[in-house]
Amino acid sequence: MNVLMIDDHVMFLQGMKNLLSVLVPELRVETAGDMGNAVKLVELAEFDLVLLDWHLADCSGEESIQRLRDAGCMARIVVLSGETNATMIRNTVDLGAAGFIPKKYSSEMMVAALEQVLAGRIFLPLETLNAAPPPPPAGERPANDPRLAGLTARQMDVYRAAARGLPNKLIARQLNIAESTVKAHLTAVYTALGVRNRTEAAYQASREGVRID
């Protein structure tokens, strides 16, 4: 797995890199202190995961995600921030983030969150969102969820891409289908899951510990 960490706080960046190297020694980790260098890196190499500081000195969080996608970044983007109000967390998910980790977490909580993210699961600070998570079914995959049994293979492809945080336009490009088709498939997914939109689907995946491949 190739991971890109983007943060303009050098000590935090180094600490996160150390944590990742302990959790998964074989990870390839690149770092960038600003969005300009981050864009250059994603143009040169493919990454599976991006850990993004929401408040960079040279770029807002929303603009950061847009610039990464415009540069062709297809990775799951997980936001890190010292700000943890529920409205902001929901906004990051609405913008396509595949998770959110508060910087104020203790080392133990940070490790647990990173383990979830590296395992392909969505991590959200449900205690901040006032939603207590039930025990996660370890290793459960979307395809094993009985609610999704009636979906087609293409609908599942769209679901997995959306759960990775890809916007509809990139999903359409990746799967070589029309953007309107992506929206139709997502509507079918949301109906099957009993949710109304991408944000609710992300919360549900986080609560249930669902792995996204």
Automatic annotation (TrEMBL):
Domain of life of the native organism: Bacteria
This protein's UniProt keywords: DNA-binding, Phosphoprotein
InterPro entries tied to this protein: CheY-like_superfamily, EvgA-like, NreC/VraR/RcsB-like_REC, Sig_transdc_resp-reg_C-effctor, Sig_transdc_resp-reg_receiver, Tscrpt_reg_LuxR_C, WH-like_DNA-bd_sf
Domain Response regulatory: 2-118
Pfam families to which the protein is assigned, alphabetical: GerE, Response_reg
4-aspartylphosphate, modified sites: D53
Domain HTH luxR-type: 144-209
Protein's name in the database: Response regulator transcription factor
Organism for this UniProt entry: Variovorax defluvii
Upper lineage: Bacteria, Pseudomonadati, Pseudomonadota, Betaproteobacteria, Burkholderiales
